[in-house]
Amino acid sequence: MDSTLPAVAEELLKEIKKAFQETSHVPDDLLLGLKFIFGPSAVPALDLVDHRSVTRVMSPSGRTAYQVLGSSGKLYTCYSSCHFCTCPAFGFTVLQKSESLLCKHILAVYLSQAMGACQELSVSEEQLTSILLAEEEDEG
């Protein structure tokens, strides 16, 4: 994970990946750790993973973003490389109030990576640019 998460969170995600590769499920002790470290984002993030709501969007140049279909039906763009999501919860609880390490969408991205549960979508450079610009237009 190329993120700015605390070492304990990084280690937990590595353990989840290892356990999932070996047994195809996440043991209860790691689920408890997930809930302890990520708080109220953990269960909704797991639900998003279960519903295969995370899509890795890749362009020919190797640029990558993730799109997560939120529980509200809205599509959010997440950037795991810089630990950012376009949802309002990320802006408010993570950036403004510092109440959480991340939102459920970016946690779902990290969990999907760990469990190999990302859907894959290859797009042209122009299509990826449109996806990124559409997010800016929504905010502006």
What does this structure look like?
The chain has 140 residues and is an alpha+beta fold. It has one domain (7-125). The protein is 52% helix and 16% strand. It is built from six helices and five strands. The chain has helices at 7-23, 28-38, 42-50, 88-96, 104-115, 125-139; strands spanning 54-58, 64-69, 75-79, 84-85, 119-122. Strands 4-3-2-1-5 form a five-stranded mixed sheet. The termini are far apart. The model has no long low-confidence stretch (mean pLDDT 90).
Major sheet description: 5 strands, mixed
Q: Unreliable segments (pLDDT under 50, ≥5 consecutive)? A: none
Helix coverage percent: 40-55%
Helix/sheet category: alpha+beta
Beta percentage is 15-25%
Keywords: Metal-binding, Zinc, Zinc-finger
GO cellular component, one term: Shu complex
Protein name: Zinc finger SWIM domain-containing protein 7
Domain SWIM-type: 76-114
Task: Provide a brief overview of the structure.
This protein is an alpha+beta fold and 140 residues long. Helices cover 52% and strands 16% of the residues. It has a 5-stranded mixed β-sheet.
Topology at a glance:
Layout (H helix, E strand, L loop, with lengths): L6 H17 L4 H11 L3 H9 L3 E5 L5 E6 L5 E5 L4 E2 L2 H9 L7 H12 L3 E4 L2 H15 L1
Parallel strand pairs: 1-5
Antiparallel strand pairs: 1-2, 2-3, 3-4
Helix pairs in contact: 1-2, 1-5, 3-5
List keywords for this structure.
140 residues; five-stranded mixed β-sheet; 5 strands; Zinc finger SWIM domain-containing protein 7; zinc-finger; Znf_SWIM; zinc ion binding
